[in-house]
Specification:
Length: 634
């Protein structure tokens, strides 16, 4: 039951080496390039595969215009009706990524690109050149399905890619279970069930999941989420997706969190669907060796037994099929955990009241190397907030090195290595339209000082609400406890303009606030149209234009110090740089929620003195686009 197979780079084509890259791109594009240098040839190849064109007035998808009407390169635009269309710095950034990967022969390149840079198109351009010129395939992965959906909805990128998510995201088309989620469909419940839609293209009546997966095996650009791609590494090659030339991970600042979720083990009656009356209670200890022994001798034994019963039964109910899937995932995690914990540091947290036991590795790099990086020859990591020093080690890429090229800024070599490169794209948003202000800080939000700080903070939020009267404000509260305390302390006239995030219906409560009139008033969770008290919304939310004109950072979002994993990193590894870096990323991500276009504007006010000190003491952890907006004149 605990058997496992892993992908190997031997299963895919050999890597594209630097010599082949240069020879091919020069021979094919030197004749039309604006110059004879390798960067001009890369630029010409990018132009030929760029999906966006313009005639000077309109912008449209390349496939909607006749090939004969489009200039082969930007340099020849005057001779044609249409030509490739780029945002500022976009072309240079894509050229630099390709140059560092295949001319400078870097193994990894990080792309730091703030909101508005057109990061997804830059990355697509890189993949399009690899496919169009060399016939090499790529994976594009991101932590959240919402970001996969954004690519799927992009009129410029989607015609050239295929997106793929887990089975539960698609509906069965078989007549016996039409409309049911594929993970609960008849093919998942009935042994040896043969579905005629399974290997039929999803756009031609095939299964929305298996047909899409079948099609993805021959598509050059596959876009998926991190969990799916990491799980793909454990699927035998004939059933999964083969390894590729390039693995791209967008929003890479979230990799550690998702890797922890992928390999961490949580054991309780809610997470492991077996008969718990048959399992001995966990030992009343947090001693790792004793808890591991309990996992092996008690939990794993019963999980194996239940999986054998499911296999023997053959045909399953929906609930049984769901339990089987959960147990198979749990078995995979336990096998990985038991084999690793004997050689590496893990922590154990035992919640005696709920009977829940949680195991987490201190570092995740070795798992990323095994489950993620093994699926490509080269790696690109992209984000508006690239984690700083130590990131390559965290990601299992420490043997490769670092060199920086800042697009729109200046060439700036660093000393962190030779086999990792960096491209930084300058923000095109005017700093005064996205100012980050520290002069309103009212006190520290540490545990011992927040009782004194919160009343002053609530008063300041009230002053800001009145200053921005008629304009929406978004408050990043960090926790529901802080949210409730701020709400209770707000001046009454501001409280009636304020709405709290519902912990049970997070997205709906945000949508309701955005749909409300900004002047709506009333007390309670479902009232108030101007101010929104949020928790955990520093990423994945787009509050463009009138959706948000001002923000408040109520507390720096440091990792929870009561976590044993955090405690180990700080007290055993003295890893305070990681601790501060995590908070720095959250702060910058939160600041980026409110301004999403060049003609937009949103001011961010930091009210937590600890967050201000984080910036002052750790300037090296922050991106240039963020630092340029600190206390800028409005």
């Amino acid at each position: 039951m605990f058997g496992n197979q892993f992908s190997s780079l031997d299963s895919g084509p050999p890597p594209l080496d630097s010599g082949e890259f240069k020879e091919t791109i020069v021979s094919e594009y030197a004749a039309i390039a604006d110059g004879i240098g390798i960067d001009e040839c890369i630029g010409a190849a990018l132009d030929a595969h760029w999906p966006v064109v313009t005639d000077g007035d309109d912008v449209c998808a390349r496939q909607s215009v006749s090939d004969d009407a489009v200039a082969p390169t930007v340099a020849s635009a005057d001779e044609y009706d249409w030509w490739p269309s780029y945002r500022e710095n976009q072309r240079d950034a894509a050229v630099s990524v390709l140059q560092q990967l295949y001319v400078d022969d870097k193994s990894v390149v990080t792309l730091s690109a703030p909101t508005g840079a057109g990061k997804s198109l830059i990355l697509h351009g890189v993949m399009a050149v690899l496919d169009g010129v060399y016939g090499r395939d790529s994976f594009f992965s991101t932590p959240l399905n919402a970001l996969v959906d954004q690519v799927d909805d992009d009129e410029f990128i989607s015609p050239h890619t295929i997106t793929l998510k887990g089975k539960n995201n698609y509906q069965c088309v078989h007549r016996q279970d039409a409309g049911a989620p594929v993970d609960k469909a008849v093919c998942q419940r009935v042994s040896d069930f043969e579905c005629e839609h399974k290997e039929q293209h999803h756009e031609n009546g095939g299964c929305p999941y298996y047909g899409r997966k079948y099609a993805a095996q021959t598509e050059s650009e596959v876009v998926t989420n991190l969990a799916y791609l990491m799980a793909n590494s454990m699927i035998p090659e004939e059933h999964g997706l083969s390894n590729r030339e390039l693995v791209i991970v967008d929003e890479c600042q979230k990799i550690e969190d998702f890797a922890l979720n992928f390999v961490g083990v949580v054991i309780s009656s809610q997470t492991v669907p077996v008969v718990w009356d048959d399992i001995a209670d966990p030992p009343q200890t947090e001693n790792l060796d004793q808890l591991v022994e309990w996992v092996e001798n008690e939990v794993a034994t019963h999980v194996n037994r239940q999986l054998e019963l499911f296999e023997a039964k053959g045909d399953l109910t929906e609930d049984e099929a769901s339990d089987r899937d959960d147990l198979q995932e749990f078995a995979r995690k336990v096998q990985n955990f038991v084999s690793d914990v004997k050689q590496n540091h893990w922590t154990a947290e035992h919640d005696y009241e709920d009977g829940k036991v949680t195991f987490e590795p201190i570092k995740v790099g070795r798992f990323l190397d095994r489950f993620l990086w093994s699926q490509g020859h080269k790696v690109v990591l992209s984000s508006a907030t690239i984690p700083k020093s130590g990131f390559m080690d965290e990601m299992g890429l420490s043997q490769r090195q670092f060199e920086s090229v800042e697009e729109g800024l200046s060439d700036s070599p660093s000393t962190e290595g030779e086999k990792v490169g960096s491209v930084e794209v300058e923000s095109t948003f005017p700093p005064e339209r996205r100012g980050v202000y520290t002069d309103n800080a009212v006190g520290k939000m540490t545990w011992g000082e927040r009782d004194e700080t919160i009343p002053k903070m609530a008063q300041k939020i009230g002053e800001l609400a009145n200053h921005y009267e008629g304009k929406r404000g978004f408050i990043h509260c960090h926790s529901y406890n802080i949210m409730e305390r701020i709400y209770d302390a707000l001046p009454a006239d501001v409280r009636e303009r304020t709405r709290k995030q519902d912990g049970d219906n997070r997205e709906q409560s945000l949508d309701d606030w955005l749909a409300a009139d900004v002047d709506e008033r009333g007390f309670g969770d479902e009232e108030g149209g101007q101010v929104f008290l949020s928790v955990g919304q520093d990423e994945g939310v787009s509050l463009d234009y009138d959706k948000c004109r001002w923000q408040v950072i109520a507390k720096a979002a440091y990792p929870h110090m009561k976590s044993k994993r955090v405690d180990y990193r700080l007290n055993e590894l003295d890893d305070w740089n990681w601790y501060a870096g995590t908070a720095a990323i959250s702060l910058q991500q939160a600041a980026g929620r409110g301004m999403r276009a060049k003609d937009d504007w949103c001011h961010t006010h930091i009210l937590d003195t600890s967050a201000v000190q984080l910036i002052e003491r750790n300037e090296h952890l922050f991106e240039n686009w963020f630092k340029s907006a600190i206390d800028v004149d409005k």
